[in-house]
Automatic annotation (TrEMBL):
Pfam families tied to this protein: Bac_luciferase
Top-level taxonomy: Bacteria, Pseudomonadati, Bacteroidota, Chitinophagia, Chitinophagales
Family, similarity comment: To bacterial alkanal monooxygenase alpha and beta chains.
Protein's name according to its UniProt entry: Luciferase-like monooxygenase
PANTHER family reported for this sequence: LUCIFERASE-LIKE MONOOXYGENASE
GO cellular component: cytosol
Chain segments annotated as coiled-coil in the UniProt record: none
Domain Luciferase-like: residue ranges: 16-283
GO-annotated molecular function: oxidoreductase activity, acting on paired donors, with incorporation or reduction of molecular oxygen
InterPro entries from the UniProt entry: Bact_Lucif_Oxidored, CmoO-like, Luciferase-like_dom, Luciferase-like_sf
């Protein structure tokens, strides 16, 4: 019997085009598309790709290109960014690129925007051509982006073509309370990165709801939570396949960059108490188990948080197991 709490919530996917140990980049991108096609078949609302750089296990750095590839290989699922890291790009180029995507795939493109670099400091400096952009005015950049997208910009000396007149929705991404204030001020949907930064989630969404100002884009708050979802037929199998994800987190915390490993090749021993504590915090919004287990744990989370949409990040080595996790997750709804 389905839990009615799930009926009020949309469900979607975040993908990083994860590179598996032994896979080529070509195979990685093929699996990304097949995963999106599977999500579409199981009724997911949207399939988002996230911009990251200089990571051996993540191939979604050219995010806009991948969005076009996935949108071109699917028919109705929304495809977008979760997100584009705005300081790495000019607002004009973002308007042009997403204006192009919107023209190619009308009413199917989302633009999620973040202000973090999506990488380490040295790489961010190279992407941004120096240190001048580290004190970044996120709000002003979003307003500038809207200006390029507005038809009133037709008389400007600088125009976004494509882009001008495009009507794809914008979303503010956050991993702390900072962006919650801005999403509320601008009256935009707010997507929180609970899959890697869960500690401030409840504070952030409370700020967002309390400060929300209705806009032409959104009448009332819309909260999206990205969390780790790893499902299998049994709790034991889910715990086993989750080892790859836990290893990936440990690798990040210990600065070891490597493709996603097979569960049998993981070593989850943590020799530092600090790393152990950080690992536990990182995994606070990680839901691992069978459908019956997640119906309870995830149902409690949805009830407590009152979110409008849940975005599943399923970092699973075995591709068939990943697609099965998508299937089982969709059956909750």
């Amino acid at each position: 019997m389905k839990d009615p709490i799930f009926e009020s919530v949309r469900y979607s996917v975040l993908d990083l085009a994860t590179v598996l140990e032994g896979d080529s980049l070509h195979a990685t991108f093929q699996k990304t598309l097949e995963a999106a096609q599977t999500a579409e078949r199981f009724g997911y609302t949207r399939y988002w790709l996230s911009e990251h750089h200089n990571m051996a296990n993540v191939a979604s750095s050219a995010t806009t290109l991948l969005i076009g590839y996935v949108a071109g290989g699917t028919e109705k699922i929304r495809v977008g960014s979760g997100g584009i890291m705005m300081p790495n790009h000019s607002t004009l180029s973002i308007a042009e690129q997403f204006g192009t995507l919107d023209a190619l795939y009308p009413d199917r493109i989302d633009l999620g925007l973040g202000r973090a670099p999506g990488t380490d400091g040295k790489t961010a400096t190279i992407l941004r051509r120096g240190n001048s952009l580290f004190d970044y005015d996120f709000e002003n950049s979003i307003r500038q982006l809207y200006q390029y997208l507005d038809t009133s910009n037709v008389t400007s000396a600088v125009r976004a073509i494509p882009g001008e007149g495009a009507e794809f929705p914008l979303y503010i991404l956050g991993s702390s309370t900072d962006s919650a204030h801005l999403a509320a001020k601008l009256g935009l949907p707010y997507a929180f990165a609970g899959h890697f930064a869960p500690t401030q989630f409840f504070d952030a969404i409370e700020i967002y709801r309390n400060e929300f100002q209705p806009s032409e884009h959104l009448e009332k708050p819309y909260v999206m939570a990205c969390v780790n979802i790893i499902m299998a037929e049994t709790d034991e199998e889910a715990q086993y396949i989750s080892r790859s994800h836990v290893q990936a987190v440990i690798n990040i915390l210990t600065d070891k960059r490597a493709p996603l490993a097979h569960p049998d090749k993981t070593d989850l021993k943590v020799y530092s108490e600090q790393v152990h504590q950080t690992l536990q915090k990182w995994l606070a919004l990680t839901f691992v188990g069978s459908k019956a287990t997640l119906q309870k744990s995830l149902g409690d989370f949805i009830s407590k948080s009152g979110i409008n949409e849940i975005i599943a990040y399923s970092n699973i080595f075995d591709f068939s197991a990943k697609l099965n996790s998508y299937k089982l997750f969709s059956e909750l709804f």
